[in-house]
Amino acid sequence: MNSSDAMREGLIALLPRLRRLARALAGQMDDADDLVQIVLERALARSGQWRPDAALDKWVFAIARNAWRDELRARHRSQALFAPEEAGDAVADNANTPSVQKLALAKALAALPPDHREVVALVLIEGMSYSEAADMLEVPVGTVTSRLARARTALQAHLGTEA
């Protein structure tokens, strides 16, 4: 199997994690789906840049992070967060149902600054170590630690929970 085939198989195996990362970065399902498509297109178009001895997930996640930053800059995000279409299903539900809790968490994540949302996505959602996240983001481990601490505080405040 050549490196191009190996990369394609690796991308297929990486799809669930990529979707989770995209949802965490984008906050809205439509934006996340678009981001996944952009990332896959870029990865395939630039397959020659990937080294088979390098971690595919780090390479693809870096593409995702950069693509989302490009998208944010292009949009000049200043619009308010609107509830996703699927949130209408929970209108009559009790406020403690899982779908309402997921919506509240999605809103809280979307309210975080992009650099904090990235750290939450990599460490808390993807389960990367602080040093792995620091390597991917090209920042010191202390920066990851402080961003994560501030993000947790902001999430707790937004969700009305105690530490």
- Beta-strand content estimate: under 5%
* Proportion of helical residues: 55-70%
List the domain count as a whole number: 2
Task: Name the poorly predicted regions.
Answer: 77-83
H and E string? HHHHHHH
CATH first level of the largest domain: Mainly Alpha
CATH-assigned fold name of the largest domain: Rna Polymerase Sigma Factor, Chain: A
Q: Which class best fits the helix and strand makeup?
A: mainly alpha
Number of alpha- plus pi-helical segments: 7
Spatial gap, N to C terminus: 50 Å
Task: Give the helices and strands, then pairings.
Layout lengths: L2 H24 L2 H17 L10 H20 L22 H14 L2 H12 L4 H8 L3 H19 L4
Question: Any key phrases for this structure?
Answer:
single chain, 163 residues, mainly alpha, Rna Polymerase Sigma Factor, Chain: A, Arc Repressor Mutant, subunit A, 2 domains, 7 helices, 70% helix, 0% strand, DNA binding, RNA polymerase subunit sigma-70, transcription regulation
Textual characterization of the structure:
This is RNA polymerase subunit sigma-70. Belongs to the sigma-70 factor family. ECF subfamily. It holds the Pfam family Sigma70_r4_2. With 163 residues, the chain is mostly helical. The chain has 2 domains: 1-78, Rna Polymerase Sigma Factor, Chain: A, CATH 1.10.1740; 93-163, Winged helix-like DNA-binding domain superfamily/Winged helix DNA-binding domain (Arc Repressor Mutant, subunit A, Orthogonal Bundle), CATH 1.10.10. It is built from 7 helices and no strands. It has helices spanning 3-26, 29-45, 56-75, 98-111, 114-125, 130-137, 141-159. Helix 2 (29-45) packs across helix 3 (56-75). The chain is globular. The termini are far apart.
